[in-house]
Specification:
The protein has 129 residues and is of the alpha+beta class. It has two domains: 77 residues, no CATH class; 46 residues. Helices cover 54% and strands 21% of the residues. The protein is built from three helices and five strands. Strands 1, 2, 3, 4 and 5 form a five-stranded antiparallel beta sheet that branches.
Length: 129
């Protein structure tokens, strides 16, 4: 297992990780950094500090920089990139309302037709042969 060091930067300030943490591979270290960002986000906001200005610089045992994880990147990954624009939602709702009205009108017509047929059937049953 390799040791990874998570240096925390907030603007010009840096807090270096002197101990590090062991992980089987760099992907696992990255996922741990993402979890740490998620955990720290709320605390930074409570302290009235802007989490978007923060980053993790992750280094290996030799001190080589492996990756940089801006906190903003974690926030951006939470956004639904496939969300339709509001206009699309309005158009869809309008189409749905029009379709619903048309089907409702057709239902009322069919209901009136059935009522007329039923009335005619009752009239015929009253006629004696």
């Amino acid at each position: 297992m390799a040791r990874y060091f998570f240096d925390f930067r907030q603007g010009a300030d840096c807090c270096c990780d002197a101990e590090g943490t062991e992980f089987a591979h760099v992907e696992q270290a990255y996922m741990e950094a993402v979890k740490a960002v998620e955990d720290m986000w709320g605390e930074l906001l409570r302290k009235r500090q802007d989490p978007r200005r923060c980053i993790f610089e992750v280094r290996d045992e030799k001190g080589e920089l492996l990756f940089v994880l801006p906190f903003q990147e974690v926030l951006d990954s939470c956004r639904d990139r496939e969300a339709p624009p509001i206009r699309f939602g309005f158009e869809t709702a309008l189409e749905s309302a029009c379709r619903t009205k048309r089907i409702s009108d057709e239902f009322v017509e069919t209901l009136h037709s059935v009522q007329q047929t039923l009335a005619q059937s009752r009239a015929l049953l009253r006629v004696k042969v």
